[in-house]
């Protein structure tokens, strides 16, 4: 059987993973605290930036907000990766997987496990806990191939949205060196994961979407839009606002999500991924899409 483009991509990705292999327990220097003169997150991508609350925050609260919002980002990614690890491990050595894809999934799993370790360490050490997982709507497989398509679409949402914040943090010299390095390491790994996701999800859509009727396509598109919106909601965590010492955290969450600055940020982050989903047929009328509050 001849190799596909995805098989050849997996060979290259596996080689890169071996080249960049690291021991997560030795990779980082864990300081006693985040440098009080450095940021835990670029302020422009925190959930309160641009709102009327931002200017009322003390410098200490802004610093703590950055630390906790990075912890919330890491915790949300950690919980998403728990789902990915379970799903990927169940796919290993499946009848339809080529050896090249199987080999890369081993690297994918190894790297996701490392991410959970480093995110968990950050959260426990600098936030004091790992923020609990939020309930997210998972797809109900109603059409042929929908279970795998839904799985990789979910993976791309978690990875692609989070990667934007990683890139912003790793490039910002205002941020604490540890935050920048964790973000950089995660971005390098995720760039490979997203390359695989795009290729494999495209293959799955080419195989299965022609068998879906219009009603099934509409149901999946509605689920995917809803999942992205609900996932965005996890970024605006009342527990973070409470840890920063802010009053009425649930009301603050709603106000922050509705603020034009925050709506614009979400639209900017989501644009590339929604365009891709539309291109491969998973989103219907994506050009008319708005990011809900």
Description:
This protein is globular. It is mostly helical and 293 residues long. It has a single domain (5-19, 39-288), classed as Ribonucleotide Reductase, subunit A. It is built from ten helices and no strands.
Question: How are the secondary structure elements laid out?
Answer:
Elements: H1 5-19, H2 24-27, H3 59-91, H4 99-127, H5 146-170, H6 177-208, H7 214-235, H8 238-244, H9 249-258, H10 260-279
List keywords for this structure.
293 residues; mainly alpha; Ribonucleotide Reductase, subunit A; 10 helices; 67% helix; 0% strand; globular
Would you summarize the structure shown here?
With 293 residues, the chain is mainly alpha-helical. The chain is built from 10 helices and no strands.
Structural class label: mainly alpha
Helices and strands, in order, run as: HHHHHHHHHH
**What is the helix fraction of residues, given as a range?**
55-70%
The fraction of residues assigned to DSSP E strands is under 5%
CATH homologous superfamily grouping: Ribonucleotide Reductase, subunit A
- Taking all Cα atoms into account, the compactness measure Rg is 19 Å
User: Which fold name corresponds to the CATH topology?
Assistant: Ribonucleotide Reductase, subunit A
- CATH domain class: Mainly Alpha
Q: From the 3D coordinates, which CATH architecture would you assign?
A: Orthogonal Bundle
Tally of separate helices: 10
Through-space gap between termini: 49 Å
Detail the poorly predicted runs.
Answer: 286-293
Which term fits the overall shape?
globular
Care to count the β-strands? Answer: 0
What is the total domain count?
1
Largest sheet: none
Mean pLDDT: 93
């Amino acid at each position: 059987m001849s190799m596909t483009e995805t098989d050849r991509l997996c060979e290259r990705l596996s080689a890169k993973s071996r080249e960049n292999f690291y021991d997560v327990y030795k990779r980082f220097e864990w300081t006693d605290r985040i440098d009080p003169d450095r940021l835990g997150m670029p302020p422009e991508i925190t959930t309160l930036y641009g709102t009327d609350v931002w200017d009322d925050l003390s410098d200490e609260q802004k610093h703590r907000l950055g630390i906790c919002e990075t912890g919330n980002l890491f915790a949300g990614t950690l919980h998403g990766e728990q789902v990915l690890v379970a799903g990927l491990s169940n796919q290993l050595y499946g009848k339809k997987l080529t050896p090249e894809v199987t080999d890369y999934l081993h690297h994918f799993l190894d790297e996701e496990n490392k991410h959970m370790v480093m995110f968990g360490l950050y959260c426990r050490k600098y936030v004091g806990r790992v923020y609990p997982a939020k309930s997210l709507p998972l797809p109900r497989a109603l059409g042929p191939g929908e279970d795998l398509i839904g799985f990789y679409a979910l993976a791309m949402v978690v990875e692609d949205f989070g990667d934007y914040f990683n890139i912003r943090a790793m490039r910002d010299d205002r941020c604490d060196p540890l935050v920048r390095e964790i973000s950089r390491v995660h971005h390098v790994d995720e760039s490979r994961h997203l390359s695989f996701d795009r290729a494999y999800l495209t293959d799955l859509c080419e195989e299965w979407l022609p068998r879906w009727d219009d009603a099934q396509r509409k149901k999946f598109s509605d689920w995917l839009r809803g999942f992205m919106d609900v996932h965005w909601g996890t970024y605006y965590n009342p527990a973070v606002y409470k840890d920063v010492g802010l009053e009425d955290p649930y009301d603050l969450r709603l106000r922050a999500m509705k603020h034009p600055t925050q709506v614009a940020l979400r639209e900017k982050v989501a644009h590339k991924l929604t365009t891709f989903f539309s291109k491969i047929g998973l989103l219907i009328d994506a050009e008319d899409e708005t990011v809900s509050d």
